[in-house]
Amino acid sequence: MKLTQKWQNFLAQELASDSFEALSSFLQEAYKQHTIYPCYEDIFRTFSLIAPEDVKVIIIGQDPYHGENQANGLAFSVHKGVKIPPSLRNIYKELIDDIGCKEPKDGDLTSWAKQGVFLINSVLTVEQAKPNSHREKGWEAFTDSVIKKLSSEMEHLVFILWGAPSQKKAALIDEKRHLILKAPHPSPLSAYRGFFGSKPFSQTNNYLQKNGLSEIAWCLESKSPTNLFDT
Q1: Phi-psi label, residue 187: left if phi above 0, alpha if psi -120 to 50, beta otherwise
Q2: Catalytic residue list
Q3: Quick one: DSSP state of residue 137?
Q4: pLDDT digits (tens, 9 = 90+) for 77-134
Q5: First vs last C-alpha separation in the chain
Q6: Cβ atoms within 10 Å of 181's Cβ, excluding its own
Q7: How far apart are CA 18 and CA 226, in angstroms?
Q8: Other C-beta atoms lying within 10 Å of the C-beta of residue 209
Q9: In degrees rounded to 5, what are phi and psi of residue 207?
Q10: How far from 33 is each of 13, 71, 99, 123, 128, CA to CA, in Å?
Q11: SS3 of 151, please?
C-alpha cells in the first residue's frame, strides 16, 4: 500500500496527519486478521494510474465491492472475468443510451482511469461480506482531503456524484472552477429515479471540449457475452 511520489507530494499534509497514521495501523491489523478487499497492493490503484495533474474527471463511489475477486481498486470497477455487478450494469446501460457505445464485455474500467478518470470511493477498503465495515476508520478524512485539494488546485474538472453520500462531497468542491454532475445512484434500487437519462458521459465530454481539453473515450470493448451479467 503505497502512493506514487507525485501523490505523496500532493497529499503530504494529509499523509503526515495523526488520522492517517491511525488508519494505517488499523489496516495493517485488519489485513492480518480478516479477508479485506481490495488486495493490499491495490488499495491505491486508482492513484497509481493517474498523476494528480492528469486528473480530468472524478467519479466518487461509496466503498469497494465486498464479494470475492470483485474489488480491483477502482470505484465501480471489477476484474476481467468477474460478473458485472448491478450498479455497473446500469452505468453501462446509461453509457449505451447516452453516447451510443456498444455493450462492454467486462467490468474493468482501467481504460477510463488511464485517460484521467479518477475512480475513487469514499472508503477504500472493506471486510469480506460486510459492506460499510470500514466506515469511520479514517478513510473519509483522507478522501475528503483528496477531493478538496483537487478542487482547489486544479481547473475545469468534472465531478460526477451519484447517490446522496457522494453528493454531500459537493460541499468540498468549488463549483465556480469545476462542473458538478449529480444524479441518483446507479443501484437497481435508485437508478430509475433519475440516473437513467442523466447523460453524464456526454455532458462531461462537452465540458472538457468547451475548456480546450481532450474528451474521454468512454466506449469500452464491445460484444459482451450476456452471461457475464448478473440476473
Answers
A1: beta
A2: 63
A3: S
A4: 999 999 999 999 999 999 999 999 999 999 999 999 999 999 999 999 999 999 999 9
A5: 34
A6: 18
A7: 48
A8: 11
A9: -65, -45
A10: 30, 19, 45, 19, 12
A11: helix
Three cell numbers at 126?
472493506
Instruction: Report helix, strand or coil for 61.
Output: strand
Phi, psi of 225 (to 5 degrees): -60, 130
- Does the predicted TM-score (pTM) go above 0.85? yes
CB 60 within 8 A of CB 122: yes
Local structure of 183: helix, strand or coil: strand
Helix 18-33 with 139-153: angle, nearest 10 deg = 130
Q: How far apart are CA 106 and CA 225, in angstroms?
A: 9
> Could you list the pLDDT tens digit for every one of the 231 residues in the chain?
689 999 999 999 999 999 999 999 999 999 999 999 999 999 999 999 999 999 999 999 999 999 998 999 999 999 999 999 999 999 999 999 999 999 999 999 999 999 999 999 999 999 999 999 999 999 999 999 999 999 999 999 999 999 998 999 999 999 999 999 999 999 999 999 999 999 999 999 999 999 999 999 999 965 444 444 443
CA atoms of 163 and 155, how far apart (whole Å): 24
Helix pair angle (86-99, 200-210), 10° resolution = 60
The helix or strand, by DSSP H or E, that contains position 29, with its residue range, turns out to be helix 18-33
**DSSP letters along 66-93, please?**
-STTTB-SSTT-B-TTSPBPHHHHHHHH
Question: How far is C-alpha 153 from the chain's CA centre?
Answer: 20
Q: Quick check: 81 and 65 in contact, CB under 8 A? A: no
